[in-house]
Write a structure and sequence with these properties.
heterodimer; A: 255 residues; mainly beta; Immunoglobulin-like; five-stranded mixed sheet; four-stranded antiparallel sheet; 3 helices; 38% strand; B: 358 residues; mainly alpha; Cytochrome Bc1 Complex, Chain D, domain 2; 3 domains; two-stranded antiparallel sheet; 2 strands
Chain lengths: 255, 358
């Protein structure tokens, strides 16, 4: 009895703190914490690529913002749908890219720095995000109106939360892989975001140049999947050689 | 109100039993039943409201109402003489205080938003969590609450007993005898039963037959308010055939106060009942005079009526006890504005003589 194991002492101390902590049982689960895979940076490689777009660009679609005059005010020139963003260089923005297969058996430590979705100008920004399971998701509201973030998760738990202007960021996490989770705002029906949750750090979202880069990939054989909200999914196999740099090219076709 | 007289009878019974069992220790405690004396007052009923419920043992008199009013506006009821009932339930703010959470004793904030006293007489229970059965019970709470007025009931009685004006008023209201906290409660409750407000544009439209009393937008808003496929607001904010209280007097969880981790920050009704289903549930507030009583919700988190409407459109915030009636609403922008217009038509006439002063 003289020397309490540190974890028991910690548990006792935690028990004394005045704030009720419903998550307390989680601490008990800690001894079974997974052994995280450490990537050997000396041999790790890189997968890069580009998402091209061919065919006809969809016509610009004006959004009816009459649901909220305050949102309309923020977009004097009108608000246009952003489901398809074709870049000037003929590539596609907002494509989620991730390693679909090839990392089985490896457990990656979730980052502590959050991924942030901001509700700004009556849009979710960014529209498409990737997040590692267990990594914190921060939701902020920079607008002067009440928003509502409603991820329609099917594998993870779906939730729905209203957020008043100026309120503190919401912090949430996703437990399971889910590609993709559709997110809506119940208050502003045009607002859309997509979250790709995967259990490893090998994901990216294409931006204004349509390229992606997955760094620090352990050598091995992988299936890379790319996803676009309008044009669906594609996949390609790739073998990453030690310290190799593999380049992939995907093309989505317009209607 | 039968309930309250029954409770009173039970208490008196318990007290008697107690004094019988411990006769020797407390030979001098003889509780006489406290009854108001003086000139009986009939509290009028404005258009749109039912008769004010009056407890059998506390029928209002001119004297109890006058005493209650003086007490209501008197900062003497707080430990440092700075806070009165009206500090947080002020006629200038629709008998609330215009703040998200109220500032009470020594600048402390309570955790909930001050509910309006207007029409509180109709509430079947008082406080956001319903922990007081009557206005009388309610009145005792804030006086002694450390973050509100912070004055113990015995100190309160001492202060009032030491004041010749008050002694006279208490004698006039309840007959000669010592000042007691029960008399304080009864007087304040009687005053509050006069803080009634009806005859709003809605009342004149709905119950007065005046088709022009509400704007076209408010009339459309009323239809949406009642439409079970649209707003369905009446599900909890009730409108009856002959009157409308705009509250079912029950407790519901809307997900207000769900924190960033998705947990309820205030368990509300659960604190009283300890029933799992009551977690995060709060008493449905009346919507009468709602345009005067911003900000909204039990934590004052919604600043405007539009934001409240949007909150409901969004379907609240999910949590395990979310009320089953709270779900995403499909309302266009103009429909949401119509609902706000309707809510603004619920501002009634303010009660005469309810303000400070004679």
């Amino acid at each position: 009895m003289r020397k309490l194991p540190i974890w028991i002492a910690a548990a006792l101390l935690a028990g004394c703190s005045s704030a009720p902590k419903p998550e307390a049982p989680k601490a008990d689960a800690r001894p079974a914490a997974p052994v995280y895979f450490k990537v050997d940076s000396a041999t790790a490689g890189t997968v890069t690529g580009k998402i091209s777009f061919t065919g006809r660009k969809p016509a610009k679609k004006k959004i009816d913002v009459s649901e909220d005059p305050q949102c309309a005010k923020m977009h004097a020139g009108g608000l246009y749908d952003e489901a398809v963003v074709v870049n000037p260089n003929g590539t596609l923005s907002n494509v989620f890219v991730y390693i679909k297969q090839g990392l089985e058996g490896k457990t990656f430590e979730p980052p502590t720095e959050p991924v942030t979705i901001d509700q700004s100008g009556c849009w979710f920004r960014p529209r498409v995000i990737g997040i590692q399971t267990g990594q914190p998701l921060n939701v902020t509201n920079s607008d002067p109106v009440t928003h509502n973030i409603h991820p329609l998760a099917e594998i993870n738990r779906a939730w729905n939360q209203s957020q008043e202007p100026g309120s503190e960021p919401l912090k949430r996490r996703f437990k399971e892989r889910e590609v993709m989770i559709r997110v809506k705002c119940n208050i502003h029906s045009w607002m859309r975001a997509w979250i790709g949750a995967v259990e490893h750090p090998y994901f990216a979202v294409t931006g204004a140049d349509g390229t992606f880069e997955l760094k620090n990939v352990p050598p091995g054989d992988y299936m890379i999947e790319v996803w676009h909200e309008q044009y669906g999914k594609q996949e390609q196999k790739v073998t990453v050689k030690p310290s190799g740099r593999e380049e992939l090219a995907f093309t989505f076709k317009g209607e | 109100m039968f309930a309250s007289s029954r409770i009173f009878a039970v208490c008196a019974g318990a007290l008697l039993a107690f004094s019988c069992g411990t006769q020797k220790e407390t030979p001098k405690v003889v509780e006489t039943v406290v009854r108001p004396v003086g000139t009986p007052v009939e509290i009028g009923t404005p258009l749109g409201l039912p008769p004010v419920p009056i407890p059998e043992n506390n029928k209002p008199t001119a004297e109890t109402i006058a005493l209650g009013k003086k007490l209501y506006y008197d900062t003497l009821l707080s430990a440092d003489g700075t806070v009165s009932c009206a500090s947080c339930h002020s006629p200038e703010h629709g008998f609330t205080d215009g703040m998200a959470t109220s500032v009470g004793f020594a600048g402390q904030h309570g955790k909930r938003s001050a509910p309006t006293v207007l029409n509180a007489a109709y509430n079947p229970v008082q406080f956001w969590d319903g922990r007081a059965a009557t206005l009388e019970d309610q009145a005792a709470g804030p006086i002694a609450n450390p973050v509100e007025m912070n004055l113990s009931h015995s100190a309160c009685v001492d202060k009032l007993s030491g004041n010749a004006d008050y002694r006279k008023l208490f004698d006039a209201a309840f007959g000669p005898g010592p000042v007691t906290i029960q008399k304080v409660q009864m007087a304040i409750a009687s005053f509050e039963r006069t803080v009634i407000s009806g005859n709003s544009p809605f009342d004149r439209y709905q119950y007065g037959g005046d088709r022009k009393a509400m704007s076209a937008a408010a009339i459309r808003g009323l239809a949406l308010f009642k439409d079970t496929g649209k707003g369905n607001c009446v599900k909890c904010h009730t409108i009856d055939e002959k009157y409308a209280l705009f509250t079912d007097g029950k407790f519901h969880n809307l997900g207000v106060g769900v924190n960033s981790e998705g947990e309820l920050t205030d368990l509300g009704r659960y604190d009283v009942t300890h029933a799992e289903a009551d977690k995060g549930a709060f008493r449905t507030p009346t919507l009468r005079n709602i345009a005067l009583t911003a900000p909204y919700m039990h934590d004052g988190s919604a600043k405007t009526l539009r934001r409240v409407v949007d909150f409901y459109v969004g379907g609240g915030s999910s949590n395990p006890q979310l009320d089953k009636e709270i779900k995403e609403l499909h309302l266009s922008g103009p429909e949401r504005e119509d609902l706000v217009a309707f809510l603004e038509a619920l501002t009634g006439e303010m009660p005469a003589n309810a303000g400070p002063g004679k």
